[in-house]
Amino acid sequence: MIAFWFKILLIPIVVLFGLFIGLLYKGIDRILAARMQLRVGPPISQPYRDFKKLMVKDNIIPRNAVKWLFNLMPVAALSTTLIILLYVPLGGTMPLLEGQGDLILVLYLLIFPALALILGGFSSNSPYAIIGAQREMIVLMSYEFPLSIISISIAWLLSFTQPGANVFSFLVITNNIIWGLVGPMGFIGLILLFVVLLFVMQGELGRVPFDVAVADTEIAGGVLAEYSGRNLALFYLANTTKVVVIGSLIIALFLPWNISDFFSVAGFSAHIFNALFFLIKLFVVTFLGSSLIRVAVARLKINQVVSAYWIHAMSVALLGLILIWVDVALQTL
Amino acid sequence: MIRKKRISVEQHNELEKAKKIKKLGTVIKAIWVFNWFNSCGFTDLIPVVGSRWDMERFGMILTSTPKHADVLFIAGYQTVKSLKRAKRIYEQMPEPRVVVALGSCTMTGGMYWDSYNTIKRLEDYIPVNLYIPGCPPRPEAIFEAVHKMMVHVQESIKKLKVGKHG
User: Was domain B31-165 assigned CATH 3.40.50.12280?
Assistant: First the structure.
């Protein structure tokens, strides 16, 4: 019973941690992007200032908009993002909420922020926003398939090597580090899956090269064209928090090492060590998966986005799956 | 029962002004700019975004829709047709909003002073907060103008604080 109330008390701490870290990593990301383009870049606190400014600005609701949907969707986007935050392992510890099929639940919940963006775009009744919402829908359909291939293949690998275990729970996934379960062929397959997952992260966050839904120079802000003030601030916060969510999902699937065993510390200090190591891992993942790709390439067209995910990413992910399957088959022979 | 304190119109206006100044104090730390450029002003202001002058170090970024913008940069001459669009963009911007007019065209008509279809003084049509002279102005002039805006807002906030305590 005490553990239950302790978890309830931890929920606001985790939520605040997610919001804070999300904005911090956004600042780091902006500075790094600026340095790569030979610019000085904004101060690290710029996202906090942006958020504060958006909160004091006027909140304009278009006359033709579906008012309740228009106002509800930013809240829905942020709250669903925060709910996923409670289901993924953060800072080297177990998630606060867990149950039967955590991985599948997280995959389903990851659709909701994008869905809120789509509904918000449609409800604002502006031509730019509607085009943006349609594009967001197409991008959502494109990246879902590679993402599910990756998570299914990991669960499938675990079900082979750990028969009888609850393979969709993060406890099993993080305790059995997948890199140690496979031979050299499966190792290559896992690397392919990891690279595809980094590209899926870009589409999930709606950043360059997959930012067709909010293409600034083409369709004037796209889905967010009509949002201003408080509503825009909530969407901004949802997007920055999503970085933490997807980053920690990638860490839980592919990089679940903890540093406390290496330094042989225990108790409370072990948690601090693990949390700091988690932040470093999160930085590496966001740098490789978001900042570097964002600066290096330009925006793809919408048909190129679909073919990049449905043909290229999917074939690479399937190749990884087949390599893992061959590897597991060779091991069991 | 709580009764709202009755205040005169002047007091109400003063309170509203103080509120607006406080809001501007947070806005100047993260200025999102919308550009409405017609001519040479555009070509000379693109470097402001680039790596040489880099306006992001002051927290200024470009937005693509007026709904996100705090500051509207209007550059170059406005014709009767383009002014309609400029007005519409201004009306879509959420409060508090600031309009900065660039170039001598917006002040006097510039080299188009005797043209039949250009606007001579932008101030007659849209409330302009700041003019930046030049034909077109250099990027340094833009930063000086933005700096003046920031200093002005900070001084007004200081005055507010002094007024409260004194």
Answer: yes
